[in-house]
Specification:
GO terms for molecular function: ceramide 1-phosphate binding; ceramide 1-phosphate transfer activity. The protein is mainly α. It contains ten helices and two strands, in the order αββααααααααα. The longest helix has 28 residues.
């Protein structure tokens, strides 16, 4: 009998399965499945500790905001497209006292760009390679352009404490390192599909510049 994941550690199979479920018809993305995958990714940031505080500090809050919107208005917050259309039609994108889902998801989308780029580069390293350079490179290519100079500087400095690839996987995956390494390529593939589809939806509705 195959050993299941340790729920206290990060599991890439869980991310893969939820993102796979998120890819629904009409080139849309199921919000609930997206957030379930993201909750597992958030566990990765938590297990890494303060080194990733520049990205994890408000991820949980944004996941909670979207989960609350889904629970209160399931009909209109089923997929990314249904959410955007509902908020646009009801002028919620411009409403000052409303934390809209479209803007909140855009922040998660940017975070996903970083984590998939980082894991992609991690996949190409050997066990003894340090992860600092690929982490800094992934950050500079993605999230850095959305952060202030102060946050960028602090993030780059914090990354100097990053361990080797082997130590990193042990820290976040516990005893299930090989299970996670085996599923990583497939997880990256489906994550790219979800990211690209989400990106395309935001381009279609011209919402990439939401403040």
């Amino acid at each position: 009998m195959a050993e299941g994941p340790d729920l206290s550690f990060f599991d890439l199979r869980t991310v893969h399965d939820h993102f796979d479920q998120a890819l629904v018809e009409n080139d849309d993305v199921d919000l609930k499945a997206y957030l379930e995958a993201y909750n597992e990714l958030y566990k990765f940031f938590q297990l890494m500790g303060s080194v990733f505080s520049f990205v994890s500090s408000d991820l949980k809050q944004k996941i909670d905001v979207l989960t609350d919107l889904i629970n209160k208005n399931t009909q209109n917050y089923t997929t990314i497209k249904s959410m955007i259309e509902y908020e646009r039609e009801n002028k919620l994108l411009e409403k000052a006292d409303f934390v809209n889902g479209s803007r909140t998801l855009l922040r998660l989308h940017r975070g996903l760009d970083f984590i998939r780029e980082f894991l992609q580069q991690l996949n190409d390293l050997t066990d003894i390679d340090k992860t600092v350079c690929c982490c800094q490179d992934a950050y500079n290519k993605t999230l850095a352009k959305h952060h202030s100079w102060v946050i960028r500087k602090a993030a780059i400095v914090a990354m100097y404490t990053m361990p080797t690839r082997e130590a990193l996987f042990k820290k976040v995956c516990g005893e299930n390192v090989q299970r996670n390494i085996d599923v990583l390529p497939k997880m990256l593939e489906v994550t790219a599909d979800v990211f690209n589809r989400t990106d395309s939806i935001y381009k279609t509705y011209q919402l990439h510049t939401l403040p």
